[in-house]
Amino acid sequence: MSQFRLARLTLLLAAIGLNLAPVLAGASLAQAADAPAAAAPKADSVRQEMFKLINPTEMSALMEAKNYAEVQSRIDRAEALADKSAYETFVLNRLRVALASSTNNNAMAITALEAVIESGRLDKAEKGAFIQALANYHYNAKDYPKAITWYKRHQTETGDLATVRPYIIRAYYFGNELERAKQELLADLKANQQAGTTPPLDALQLLANTGAKTKDKATYLVALEQLVKYYPSDDYWTDLLSRTQGKDGYSARFQLDVLRLEFAAVKAMAPDEYTEMAELALQAAFPAEAKKVLDAGFAAGLLGTGPNGAKHKKLRDQAAKGTADDQKNIGAGEAAAAKAKDGTGFVNLGYAYVTMDQFDKGIELIQKGIAKGGLKRPEDAKLRLGYSYAMAGRKDDAVKTLATVQGNDGLGDLARFWTLWLNRPAATTAAK
To answer: Which of 132, 163, 166, 230 has the fewest CB neighbours in a 10 Å radius?
Structure first.
């Protein structure tokens, strides 16, 4: 993740630092009735001697010409005048802010900004802008404690808690206050969930980073799940499914189920995942599923070439032969399933039909198997029914069924992840 440098700083400084005409205009008008140059200035006016040095028309021209040395010289000569009023000091510091922002003189900018803020001569809106600019300077200088102090003062002075909050959290993160950053990010995520709003992408990425850096696997998975929900990508899906399988108590029997979801969710899997899924599908007596995934791998140019190309072709031939045999003989399986004491045969036969894209027939048989009962793992059967609905494009039925699946050995996670995929943003991967 990037350093989250504050790109808006230049625009902010342009608004508050270079706009000197209103400040100096009052000074020039006041000069008409002013005393001789040697006299001390009146309140909220600039003496003639100083005004000649920092005439706004001339200073603006010098700034536009990038004659920064002359601008600095004039500020220094004006600073050398004795008995400056508070207003004159304020004006000079405004000039320093403008010059510093144009010359990348961070030290000058920080000193001048703080002086302007504490001058008591800014209205509420101006003061908030100056405070934010000062906080940004400290942030970009990696002085995160000071940045936080000034961002919080911005919140206090303006009453606006939202604008600089992301910067405060990032200052905690980059300042190595990782636990604090994590808690603030989790609080924001909870607020988004309660309000039904989409969490910002960079906030979720930062939450994932805090989880990784603090070795908090649970937080990392929370962030990943939200990234998959709102900003799905192949990388996020692959990472989520891989890391979920590493959770304590996760059952290895779901390896094929995990690959089925990955196959649906990503544009392309790794070559070895195509072959692994095919091999597992063949072992489970679903050759049509094996053929489908191998065909996709070949079509993507990921299988059939290189040192394992011959092995891939042999595996696809095996899947093709098994599929042809199943298509001839699958009808005979229904009678055997009907005679069985439990519904396992119907569930397996039904899913075989699903892999052949005969969705209505397959779903009907899976339902019949669940209703018949006697299943060793009835929740597994409901999960299979749920993603069979998903593969058939019956989203509402899928979501309703998946919501009933319970289990902490991977069942609950897979049901939830299939629902995330079903509710994915419209622009993402469609079912294969």
So the answer is: 163
d(CA 410, CA 384) in angstroms, rounded, equals: 13
- Does the CA dihedral 35-36-42-47 come out positive or negative? positive
pLDDT tens digits, one per residue of 282-297: 999 999 999 999 999 9
Exposure pattern of 340-367 as b/e (b: 16+ CB <10 Å)? eeebbbbbbbbbbbbbbebbebbbebbb
Cα distances from 1 to residues 33, 170, 174, 181, 205, in angstroms, run 59, 11, 11, 15, 8
Q: Tokens 């996709």 identify what position?
A: 296
3-state SS, 67-89, equals CHHHHHHHHHHHHCCCCCCHHHH
Classified as helix, coil or strand, 104 is: coil
Length of the chain measured in residues = 432
pLDDT in tens, 401-423: 999 999 999 999 999 999 999 99
Q: Using CA atoms, how far apart are residues 360 and 392, in angstroms rounded to an integer?
A: 8
Nearest by Cα to 348 from 414, 281, 263, 411? 281
Tokens of 378: 């009835």
pTM attached to this predicted model: 0.84
